[in-house]
Amino acid sequence: xxxxxxxxxxxxxxHALKGISLxxxxxxxxxxxxxxxxxxxxxxxTISGLLRPRxxxxxxxxxxxxxxxxxxxxxRGIAHAPEGRRIFNSLTxxxxxxxxxxxxxxxxxxxxxxxVFALFPRLRERRSQVAGTLSGGEQQMLAIGRALMARPxxxxxxxxxxxxxxxxxxxxxxxxxxxxxxxxxxxxVEQNAAMALSIAHRGYVLETGSITLHGSAVELQEHPDxxxxxxxxxx
Length: 235
Description:
The protein is an alpha/beta fold. It contains ten helices and ten strands. Helix content is 37%, strand content 26%.
């Protein structure tokens, strides 16, 4: 479904992504693991059109999208819940969700707002509340819900557990699984490797702009390098 092929991405003279390739099949949850600065967020930004690869390609169902503007990439079925949530602080919860449907012109927007409220009941309780006054966990729910309002076929999630209490992390990851079961393919960037691999089908490990490992979630969980570097196990 999504095919990232040998992309090279730079920030000025800084070589951020060094020819990485990855694939995400329809219906999968694929985890992208790595330490700070490894290039995980850069990868998602490149897929969603916020950054341009100097060389390489990004294909969605066989069609190149790496030269398209971001709004066109969204219209083709990719939505991005960015690191740091980036909600509209001065708008209400409902208004934020409606902004997620900005490119849509169909009659099902209200229905999809209700779908988000079913996934995140706490947002229903706060539907008229100004988003900037929400807790961190509620803001993360809103960021994911806003992305879902674009009706994506592929949802890019960047660090959904960042800064959240453990009980909220469990709730967020359970909801990510629910979203996947409802038919949305997911590419997940997450520093909590144990949680990411517990719900993912496959994963990639990114180190200083290069893919160093890939395989099924079980294979990565059992790999000694992953255990030592990301799961707190081994010598």
